[in-house]
Amino acid sequence: MIRINTQDGTPIYLQIVRQFQYLIATGSLKKGDELPPVRTLAQQLLINPNTVAKAYKELESQGLIYTRPGAGTYVAPTRPIFSDDERYRIFHEHVDSLLVVAKHLNFSLNQVLEQIKIRAEKINLNIEEE
């Protein structure tokens, strides 16, 4: 569920924070869902548990998660409303990733846009044009 990239220059704890923010914002993680224990996630990611603890502390300070001592860490009951800047930052990360893949596979921008339209229709995603 959470992946880190040691090559992109973003601190690992911040990568974890951003990925949990995304999962919560999109509803992939819902209120009351339990997050993996610090040590478990650290072992899965092969990182220091202090890094995961720092990420969880940041998420808690943002009101996205809460910890019940001895019982675990959970998604907070209220779904956050992200600022436009944060929404665009999350969206741009995914667009950038798509464009890198498209470039590696030698797709033109027109081909990418056409495929996006085809996929949107296929999954009945109604994105209105302005």
Question: What does this 3D model show about the protein?
Answer:
This protein is mainly α and 130 residues long. The chain folds into two domains: 12-75, Winged helix-like DNA-binding domain superfamily/Winged helix DNA-binding domain (Arc Repressor Mutant, subunit A, Orthogonal Bundle), CATH 1.10.10.10; 84-122. Helices cover 54% and strands 8% of the residues. It has helices at 12-25, 38-45, 49-61, 84-104, 109-122; strands spanning 34-35, 65-68, 72-75. Strands 1-3-2 form a three-stranded antiparallel beta sheet. The model has no long low-confidence stretch (mean pLDDT 89).
Q: CATH topology of the largest domain, which one?
A: Arc Repressor Mutant, subunit A
* Cα end-to-end separation: 34 Å
The strand line-up of the biggest sheet is: 1-3-2
Biggest sheet details? 3 strands, antiparallel
Question: What overall form do the CA principal axes indicate?
Answer: globular
Q: Element order, helices and strands?
A: HEHHEEHH
CATH architecture type of the largest domain: Orthogonal Bundle
Which residues form runs of ≥5 with pLDDT under 50?
none
